[in-house]
Amino acid sequence: MKEPCHLENIEPHKLAQHQSKLTGHLPFSDFVRVEELAFSSAANVDDESDEGSASPKSDVHYELAFGYDENRQAICSGHVKVNMGLQCQRCMNRVDHQVDSDFVFAFVKTDEQAAQLPRSYEPVMFDGYAVNLREALEDEILLALPAFPAHDDGDCELAVATASAESTNEKPSPFAGLTELLKK
Ligand SMILES: [Zn+2]
């Protein structure tokens, strides 16, 4: 049994036949598209300040289990986990975020095959031989990131200000108009 040293050239059928399990971690910097969305790269325009570790990023941890389902579809049940910083879209400061995501990849060669998969599967296109699973993991992380990253209300500088402003501001009930309509 040899351990693959990285995930960029994975042979799904070979691993599925052996019901192989792969666990390990990769440096965050291998995930360039995710790194672009991380807080530090967005804020630190000059690369020289890179050493100040105000924004620790963890490695990307993964657990992958290969096999076939009852339809002889090659699949990979997996888990990916990474801690990173995102930019809060309310106060623009760093907000810590943990991606902790389960998935089932199904390896398919055509769009038709992909369309026939159960909804719980995520299709990963491959040539029937090898696949870059690091790319697939990166897609999975990107999917798991919030569209609107923000602090919890109590932790966000801006949210505190907004909340207190709102409480002193008397707003008409959104149902006021509805009540009028119901009277008719
Ligand atoms: Zn915030």
In short:
The protein has helices spanning 12-17, 32-35, 39-43, 111-115, 133-144, 157-168, 176-183, and strands at 21-26, 60-68, 74-87, 94-108, 122-125. With 184 residues, the chain is an alpha+beta fold. Strands 1-2-3-4-5 form a five-stranded mixed beta sheet.
Give structural attributes.
five-stranded mixed sheet; 5 strands; 28% helix
Describe the structure.
The protein has helices spanning 12-17, 32-35, 39-43, 111-115, 133-144, 157-168, 176-183; strands at residues 21-26, 60-68, 74-87, 94-108, 122-125. With 184 residues, the chain is α+β, with helices and mostly antiparallel strands. The model is unreliable at 1-5 and 41-55 (pLDDT under 50). Bound molecules: zinc ion. The site of zinc ion (ZN) has 10 residues, from α6.
Q: Write the H/E string, N to C.
A: HEHHEEEHEHHH
Structural class designation = alpha+beta
Strand content: 25-35%
Contiguous low-pLDDT stretches (5 residues minimum) are 1-5, 41-55
Number of DSSP-assigned strands: 5
**Largest sheet, spatial ordering of strands:** 1-2-3-4-5
Number of helical segments with 4 or more residues? 7
Largest sheet: 5 strands, mixed
The share of residues in helices is 25-40%
Rounded radius of gyration (Å): 23 Å
Distance between the termini: 78 Å
User: Which term fits the overall shape?
Assistant: elongated
| Mean pLDDT figure | 83
Total domains:
1
Bound molecules: zinc ion
List the helices and strands and how they pair.
Elements: H1 12-17, E1 21-26, H2 32-35, H3 39-43, E2 60-68, E3 74-87, E4 94-108, H4 111-115, E5 122-125, H5 133-144, H6 157-168, H7 176-183
The structure holds zinc ion.
